[in-house]
Amino acid sequence: MYSIQTLQQAVPRLLAWFQREKRDLPWRRNRTFYTALVAELMLQQTRVEAVKEKYVAFLERFPTERELALATEDEVMKAWEGLGYYSRARNLKKAAETLFHEGTPQTWVGVNALAGVGNYTAGALSSIALGLKEPAVDGNVVRILSRFFADPSTADDALKAKYVDLLRAVYPDETADFCEGLMELGAIVCVPNGPPLCENCPWNALCLAHQRGEEEKYPVRAPKKARRVETLDVYVLTREGRYALRKREKGLLKGLWEFPNVSAGSPPPCPCNILSKRTARHIFTHVEWHMTGYLAETCEDGGFVWATAEEIERELAIPSAFSAFKCWLK
């Protein structure tokens, strides 16, 4: 099923195509290991278009690992605001601390040991920033190769490991271009949603799924589990021109600032007068929050941190899960 010879033929075609077609992305300019690390962690589970401006602004604020290592957590979270999956920001700060104190790792094992870096990201950083022949196989690469080989195997960790071995056998000296070429192919040609743009693909003459007209048959996926739904009442409490915030103590978004909230139907967090109401929904990987938000006045302190809209905008990161209610901040 897996022809190394055919995959070897595919390598120079991908490299030539990437040189012609690669997008001008900010993390492809003036790259260091640190800037590659920032980009890779930002791009985890986040669209390229959402990352581009954030990446540039983040590096303006923290241009090297030193500035990031010495920053406070609140400063880092504010710079990350809007990207979601905030554990990535904490991990990035921890990784920057390691780089600052111990220097840049020079092996896949050393890269993999950095906070927030799994096997895929370790392969990407090793290939792109260190010139090591270490494959990076994620869902995009699985999709490309499962179509290339017309592979009936279920897309799981075992298949990823198989593709790592296959790619390592053909990895060229141009490690960065090959790694990014696969990423680019999955992003703009062998796309995840909708039919692939096979007429633009450098591998169309070699791809078994394309030869058979079965591109959308692959990859073969296991059934997805339904997301759990949680219902919340969210209170944007206002008092003397300030708004109530608290740090989330556990679960999703732990350690981040949030508007006070309770399980739907529970009493409000303090006595208040409701001024306005709206609903919103936020989807995490395995959970959906269905929220009813209330703008409310209160005379109680409630033990919250109280901040003006300007202070929140300037200093305090509120996760995008609550962004539908930020319109009430005046």
Q: How would you describe this structure in keywords?
A:
13 helices; Nucleoside Triphosphate Pyrophosphohydrolase; Endonuclease III, domain 1; globular; alpha+beta; 330 residues
Give an account of the 3D structure.
The protein is an alpha+beta fold and 330 residues long. It folds into two domains: 4-217, Hypothetical protein, domain 2 (Endonuclease III, domain 1, Orthogonal Bundle); 228-328, Nucleoside Triphosphate Pyrophosphohydrolase (Alpha-Beta Complex). The chain is 42% helix and 15% strand. Strands 1, 2, 3, 4, 5, 6 and 7 form a seven-stranded mixed beta sheet that branches. The chain is globular.
A few lines on this structure:
The protein is an alpha+beta fold. Helix content is 42%, strand content 15%.
Order of helices and strands: HHHHHHHHHHHHEEEEEEEH
Average the pLDDT over all residues and give the rounded result: 96
Q: Class by helix and strand content?
A: alpha+beta
By DSSP, the count of extended strands is 7
CATH architecture tag of the largest domain = Orthogonal Bundle
CATH level 1 class label of the largest domain: Mainly Alpha
Largest sheet: 7 strands, mixed
- CATH H-tier superfamily of the largest domain: Hypothetical protein, domain 2
Distance between the amino and carboxyl termini: 62 Å
Secondary structure blueprint with pairings:
Blueprint: H1 4-21, H2 33-43, H3 48-61, H4 65-70, H5 73-80, H6 87-102, H7 108-112, H8 119-130, H9 139-148, H10 157-170, H11 175-188, H12 208-212, E1 228-239, E2 242-247, E3 257-258, E4 261-263, E5 273-283, E6 287-297, E7 305-307, H13 309-315
Parallel strand pairs: 1-6
Antiparallel strand pairs: 1-2, 1-4, 2-3, 2-7, 5-6
Helix pairs in contact: 1-10, 1-11, 2-3, 2-6, 2-8, 8-11, 9-11
